[in-house]
Amino acid sequence: MEVKPDVKGAALLLAIGLFFTVNAYFIPLPLMMQDVVTTPAFFPTAVGSIFSFLALCQLIVALRAKAGSPEPGVTDSPRQRRRPAIFILILLLGYIIAMQLFGFLASSVVMMAAALAISAGALGKKHSGWVTLLLAVVFSVAAFILFDLLLDVPLPRGIWSVERLFGM
Fold first, then answer.
1. In which domain, by residue range, is 50 found?
2. For the whole prediction, is pTM greater than 0.90?
């Protein structure tokens, strides 16, 4: 019996998630730690646990799928299914360059809008351009507020950035 690629992929993701979750327990704790949330192991444990749970859900879905039945809405050849992934990789390379020039906020809005449009097209869904742009702006601004303003994590400002324009 041949194992489906979806099952192999989900099993690999589950193994990676469990690896991070288990290894997080071996992170030494400072002696005076009182709050569980502030320990160095909290974030790797939380991310690994969530990752493992989602991989387990994907594994269950892959195992329950009937052999030989395509995913709903997927009738493209494997070559056509790879095309959006290649576009996303090119988009990420452009994002890295754009972030240095235009800063985090502007480049994130453009990258997220383009990624949403590519993903929607790959799934055969049609979204309004306004909805895509609104989602990109809301999530990019939320990420900027969270990291730059609340957590005080410096984000790239860029040479011609929106952040410099507004003095942020």
1. 5-64
2. no
